[in-house]
Amino acid sequence: MMENKPAEAGPAFERDVLPTLRAVQGACAAIVEATAAAKGAQAIRKASHLQKALDIPMTLAWQVFRLATVDDPITEAETVPGSRSVQRLVRSARLQGVRAEPLDSLVDSVRRFEELVKEIAGDRKTFNSIASGLNPDDTADSMLNIRRDAFRANSKIHGASVRTRMATYIVHPASESMADVLGLVGVVDLYRLRAGRPFTFTSTSITGAQQQGSNFGHTLDPPDLSARGGSVLTEFCSDPIRSIRSYISDDNRLVTELSPEDLGKRHAVDAFVAEIYRDGDQRFATEADPMFSVKMQVTMPTVIGVIDIVLAEGVFGRKNPIPEATMAMHRRQLPFTADRIGVDPEVEIIERPDVLYLGQGSGVLKTSDIPRYPAMFEHVCERAGWDPGVFHTFRCRVEYPVMGSSIAVGLNKLPPA
Predict the structure, then answer these.
(1) What is the third-level CATH fold of 158-412?
(2) Which end of the chain, C or N, has fewer beta carbons within 10 A?
(3) Is 150 exposed, middle or buried (0-12, 13-18, 19+ CB in 10 A)?
(4) Quick check: pTM over 0.85?
(5) Would you list the domain boundaries of the chain?
């Protein structure tokens, strides 16, 4: 036997649900008015007044008052109280002398609402999820709650989580036409319940000229141009960090693994790696390389993902372009380029996070998400031979990024002057 597919948010759903919700709303409004009359008050203007008048829990009073006063009840479908709560309200209201007609109306309308919920969605949780899609003000909060729940579930399934994943890309002129790119990647409070194989805690890539040929990242100082991989920032890592290994995967991603010796049960780890791409990207747009873009692949349950694009004054022209961000799912493994976003059928957009301009200098990097971040930034700039005061920072911060997605931040380069 085939199961009924839950309804989807849209005109048909709203058409079916709205009359019942208006009946619930009318009953709630009548109860508020009847309560004021029973108590000899001119009006009940707050949920707290209703709570005191009827001697009911504050949550229940808020639900009734909110439904009674909202302009569009479809936006408050999640607020409708359950039948057991309604029975409690009715008992209390009768004791306070509220007339029976609006109370009976509420009981009847809530009963019809619950029957409708079962018919079109199966259960209240599914119904609330569908209804939230009709309220643009609540959609973002609802999705964040869903992603938070997914993080908690994935943490248990994978036996690991991380509080903050960071990927910082610092771009500095190398010549009139080329730029050096310094990548700073890391994790804060990497927490693993089950020890075992080496743990891949970063998997990031940069698109553009730096991916051509063998021009991959190297250690900061002295630059070991014969070896691929970065410098472990031991001054900022947990003590001790025994072994971090970096290598370039087949699809041109920097993969960094942490030794299983550093990942026992109930052991939180901070680890940071920096590498530099000398002449890593062209400063100005060409037909083959029109963008500068970076990507963080979400390969573990993560609370906060932070991508910072840090540009030296004028590195991409007299006025640096403003980056944009996207969190997307790839239906299959693809070589990543930012121009795929929004046009490639193999890429599904989940969200377009904000990218904020923070300001100039190392002080603007300060955040509770990453301890000692300004000092770490100054440290890698010093090792690269750069003045930290000349940089401007653009930040993309995503809470509970979706497992398996990619957060991409990119900007369109300007043509040569």
Answers:
(1) Immunoglobulin-like (2.60.40)
(2) N
(3) middle
(4) no
(5) 11-134, 158-412
